[in-house]
Known about the structure:
By secondary structure, the protein is of the alpha/beta class. The chain has a single domain (about 5-245), classed as Aldolase class I (TIM Barrel, Alpha-Beta Barrel), CATH 3.20.20.70. It has 10 helices and 8 strands. Strands 1-2-3-4-5-6-7-8 form an 8-stranded parallel beta barrel, surrounded by 5 helices. Helix 2 links the parallel strand 2 and strand 3. Helix 1 crosses helix 10 (about 235-245), helix 5 packs across helix 7 (about 140-150) and helix 7 packs parallel to helix 8 (about 175-195). The longest helix has 19 residues, at about 175-195. The model has no long low-confidence stretch (mean pLDDT about 95). It binds 1,3-dihydroxyacetonephosphate.
Amino acid sequence: MRKPLIAANWKMNKTVGEAEAFLRDFIPLITEVEDTDIVIAPPFTALSAVSSLLKGSPIQLSAQNMFYEEKGAYTGEIAPGMLTDLCCTHVLLGHSERRQYFRETDEILNKKVKAARAHGLTAIFCIGESLGEREAGETFAVLQRELEEGLKAIGPEGIVIAYEPIWAIGTGKTATTGQVQEAHRFIREKLSALYGNEASSMRILYGGSVTPENIDALMECADVDGALVGGASLKPDSFARLVRFRR
Ligand code: 13P
């Protein structure tokens, strides 16, 4: 069976002090959670401090992005080895905000996913359609292209997919469970085409206005294996409730 995974994407939020205060409150709230993986992706500047506070806890550490080169003259970029050095186990790649605002293409993302895997990092690879694409009936074509191009020549190990319809991110407009399950089933079928039987053990997360109010219903969907959460992951009580979802 697929173990659920609930991941916090803090985006460009929280200073080091704010991240530390969050963890002081959050860790005691989840001590007896065993059947769900918990991942937190703070901004780069808080990774080191968060890494220290997570030692001995079951919570795993993720970066929100990285560059694919090992080192060198790439001002402002962060290499995969710098993340593993801080005990990161995961990295978010292909978030729609990276694709949209920073022009990350399928080709660049394919290099990033390869580099992450070469360093043993689990890639939480994000895909999803815009409102315009959905309205034009292009949702499945977009998901298929992003999967096939982004994961080209990459095996299934250490890959988690996050389906994040762009129109549901930060808008309070969650996709319906019907829309979510339909997209997740499609993604699972495409993963089967790429990886055969191994697709059945790959986790597919949903992201886009996930809250304590809607998490339980979302987790009921057969092909939803967890959530990637922005806004509702910023407060300890709220994120703890998400991690303790009820099926
Ligand atoms: P919100 O949960 O704030 O909608 O953000 C979703 C997201 O983009 C997580 O990566």
